[in-house]
Known about the structure:
Elements: H1 6-20, H2 25-34, H3 36-53, H4 57-73, H5 80-94, H6 105-143, H7 150-169, H8 173-205, E1 209-211, H9 226-247, E2 250-252
Parallel strand pairs: 1-2
Helix pairs in contact: 1-3, 4-5, 4-6, 5-6, 6-7, 6-8, 7-8
Amino acid sequence: MRYPGKEGIENYVSLLKRLLNVTDPSSFLETVAEARDELVGMHQKVEPVMSFFGSVQVEIFRRLSMEVGDFRRNIQFLSEDARSDVVRIEEIFSLDEPYSQIKDLTQLESRIKASLEESLLNLKQELHEKLISAMEDIERELASYDGLSDEFKRLVMKPFDDIKRDIATSDDCVFVKLQSTRINDLCGSAYEKIKRQVRIIKEIDATPVVIQGTALFRTKKNIETEDDLDEYLENLRAAMRTILNEKNKIKVL
């Protein structure tokens, strides 16, 4: 962090060191006399700097210097006035002697934080509504299939509960905004999990009906004509179609 007046302090310290390096008393007094105007001028320049470090201004300056990066990162969420306040803070930091204007930093900081807080609340509300809608869609999808266990349903819904918690506890507009993409990704993943699980259940349930013996193929009367044959085959087709619709697979032994 670059504090204001650093160069002036360094020049002043350098001059004092040069004077203190003169060990002969008479030479020291002569050197001080020669450097009197320079010494007085430098002291006048660094006096505001020393006052700065001895006041509450240094803490304000330190705090804002750490916060301004976050303000700039969140600039898209600020009102026009708050954006101007960020620019004003950066202008004050760029001054060589900002001492008379450091008092303005607290008010600028307050307005920026108020704007960020308003944007954060709006973002949280927007994302909460999107999340609830997505969760309701997934819950309806889960309810539309038989055979899905409660444990599987909890597994699918847990990531959405995690996002809900993250949104509620975050104080970062950028992070909350990014949860919109996270919700979209989770929805896609949830639908894929459901489809995969439904497919697994169908494969388990699709054990073929084993037809043993000749009962299904027996005729009630002799087949003597082509019409008799057509009637027999039609009845057999109907019986096997019923089995196929119920169990999907038929195996004849």
